[in-house]
Structure formats: structure tokens, C-alpha cells
Specification:
single chain; about 350 residues; alpha+beta; OB fold (Dihydrolipoamide Acetyltransferase, E2P); six-stranded mixed sheet; 21 strands
């Protein structure tokens, strides 16, 4: 796993200042933050598209940028695979030719990434003779990812690659990205402002705000801090639970979260794994003890690990084997005597769950 060490100070002509430093060596690291926080600028410095006033970037054992030492490796020699929000495929080349272009740019001969295997993993064999103008947005992004892979990169850089896609396509492309990481073990830097995307794919999160790092931690910790996430102007945290042991009955499906059973809305059998459920903290009702005689089928037991009060609401993080967030009023939090360590039951209706693959 290649380690990335990044240090950069740069002031733009409009007054925005970037002062960022971090070190990561995780399979997938997310750069997360609101628009204008500096995420794309960081990626541009790493990729060699922005020459900062002061910076040092070390990828594995190679220094690709050190302004003090006069080192500035050209972008095409940094051994990076780039995937952008706009796929940037060559419109005059068919899919196979676009992929072969990436293969011709391969610099690392020791990384065995085979053309046929990339086509198989990304499920693009039927697209090989088509031109980009005849592809959907999701298909274009899969081809762009394949082209980046075939260049044999030491690291993948992905700049909001899902921003222009609808929710169902986003889920599918995330699944393909997870397959790629599992297959080739290429460290990935993933830029996003979507909590759900980051919770799903990232092992580590660097949160940026106004050109500074405000926290760097595992997703559950990094995404539980309200100020850099703008909770005051949004719905708060996002719930995304990973399901195990899916089972199907005549009229419903179930999955497991740890050792607890979760009833799901009617769904077709998934075409890939893993499967996640996404839902709002407002859809969770809390109780200090289990209650019978309710239509709500999901009663998940856990322990309160954090409370965050924001503008008349209290977000409660509950450890049920994974972190689940509930939203309650301050009065309800007082009546339930909620505090870290409290045992709690989370009530959740199946129809409020959105299943994503």
C-alpha cells in the first residue's frame, strides 16, 4: 500500500488560502467537505495540474513535488490514474480504443492489470465498439475508471466522479469502485461532499473546511462532527448500515446487522454485494426499553456513544455493532435521560429503509 504524504501552502489570487497537511496509507481515503473547501485544489496539486507556492508531495518512496528542492515531476510521470466528474473520454475513439490508450500510458510494468480482466470486472465488454456519445453517464464513468486502471497507476485520484449521476447509478458505480479496490489493491483518494458515498467506500476521511484540515479519522468519527459538516443547514448525519446474511421470504426480506435481524422493504435479489440500507435519523424512534404491540418490526438494541445538540435537535449516535444516528428533541433526550453508555432500543419501520447495492 503506497503511503501519501501531502503538505501544501498556497494563496490564490481571489484570496482563498490552502494550508493543508496529512499523511495516509489506507485503501480508500476520502477528501470530504463543502464546496469551496479546497478538495479539488488538493487533488490538482497531487496530480501536477496546480503548481503551489510551497508544497511537498511524497507518493510511496518517490517525491513527486518539493518546491524547496526544485522537484516537480510532470503529471504524465507521476503514475497516477485520474477519474473526474466529467469523464474526459476521447469522443472520436470507441471504448476499446479509449481503454487501450490508458494501457499504452502504463509506466509500471510490474503491475499486472490485464485488459480482459478490467473489462470483466467493470462489465463493459458489450460497450467496446461503442463511442462515448452513445454511452450513459454511468457507462462513461466505468470506462473512465477502466482507462485509469489500465495505465497501471500507483494511486487512483477520483474527483467527485458521481456528482452528475442519479442515486441508482451512484450506487452501482460505488460497487464497481469497491470491486476495483478489492481486486487490484490500488490506494484511492476519493473526493466527495456526500456523506453516504464516503461512509460506503472510505477507510479514512480527511475533512476540509476553508482550506484547512479540521479532522482526519475513520468515517464514523470524522463524519460525527457537526461544524465542518454543515449540520446546521442540512438534515444532519446520514445512516448507512452494511447488511449481512440476506434472506428472502414470500413478502419481505431480512438482513443482519451484527447479531440483530433487520426487516427490509420488498426488494429484488441484489445482483452484487455488499448491500447497504440508508435512512434518515428522523426515521428512528428511541426507547429505554423494548415495547411490544407496535407495527414497527425493527427493534435494534444498542448503547448511546455520543450526543450532539444542533439548533433545537439532538442527534444521538447509537452503537448497534455499527453506528446508527437518531434525531430527537432536547425534551425527549431529557425525558429518556440519554447519555453516553445508556442502553437504548432503536425502532425503525421497514418502509423507511432505502436499500442500495
Amino acid at each position: 500500500m503506497s503511503r501519501l504524504s501531502f503538505q501544501c501552502e498556497h494563496r490564490f489570487s481571489g484570496g482563498f488560502a490552502l494550508d493543508v497537511a496529512f499523511d495516509v496509507d489506507h485503501p480508500v481515503t476520502a477528501l470530504f467537505g463543502p464546496s469551496g473547501s479546497g478538495k479539488t485544489s488538493v487533488l490538482s496539486v497531487i496530480g501536477g495540474f496546480l503548481r503551489p507556492q510551497r508544497a511537498k508531495v511524497v507518493l510511496g518512496e518517490r517525491t513527486v513535488l518539493d518546491t524547496a528542492a526544485g522537484i516537480d515531476v510532470p503529471p504524465e510521470r507521476r503514475q497516477l490514474g485520474m477519474v473526474f466528474q466529467t469523464h474526459l473520454l476521447f469522443p472520436h475513439l470507441d471504448v476499446e480504443a479509449n481503454l487501450r490508450y490508458g494501457q499504452r500510458r502504463r509506466q509500471r510494468k510490474d503491475r499486472p492489470i490485464e485488459f480482459d480482466r478490467v473489462v470483466d470486472v467493470l462489465e463493459i465488454a458489450r460497450l467496446l465498439k461503442r463511442y462515448p456519445g452513445k454511452l450513459s453517464g454511468g457507462e462513461c464513468q466505468r470506462v473512465a475508471l477502466g482507462r485509469a486502471l489500465l495505465s497501471g497507476p500507483e494511486m487512483l485520484l477520483m474527483d467527485e466522479p458521481l456528482a452528475s449521476l442519479d442515486a441508482s447509478l451512484k450506487a452501482r458505480i460505488l460497487a464497481y469502485l469497491q470491486r476495483v479496490v478489492a481486486e487490484w489493491h490500488i490506494p484511492t483518494l476519493f473526493v466527495s461532499h456526500s456523506q453516504a458515498e464516503v461512509r460506503r467506500v472510505a477507510d479514512w476521511v480527511v475533512v476540509l473546511q476553508q482550506g484547512r484540515v479540521v479532522t482526519a479519522a475513520a468515517p464514523g468519527e470524522a463524519l460525527s462532527r457537526p461544524e465542518p459538516l454543515g449540520w446546521k443547514n442540512a438534515a444532519g448525519p446520514v445512516n448507512l448500515l452494511r447488511l449481512e446474511e440476506l434472506a428472502f421470504r414470500d413478502d419481505h426480506a431480512t438482513g443482519r446487522v451484527g447479531d440483530q435481524l433487520l426487516y427490509l422493504p420488498p426488494m429484488e435479489r441484489p445482483s452484487a454485494s455488499p448491500v447497504f440500507v440508508q435512512f434518515s435519523p428522523a426515521d428512528v424512534t428511541l426507547g429505554r426499553q423494548d415495547v411490544t404491540g407496535l407495527s414497527t418490526r425493527n427493534h435494534l438494541r444498542g448503547r448511546v456513544c455520543r450526543l450532539v445538540e444542533v439548533d433545537g435537535a439532538v442527534f444521538v449516535a447509537v452503537d448497534i455493532g455499527q453506528i446508527l444516528w437518531a434525531e430527537v428533541t432536547p425534551d425527549a433526550a431529557d425525558e429518556l435521560d440519554l447519555k453516553p453508555g445508556s442502553e437504548i432500543v432503536c425502532l425503525l419501520k421497514a418502509h423507511s429503509l432505502h436499500v442500495v447495492e
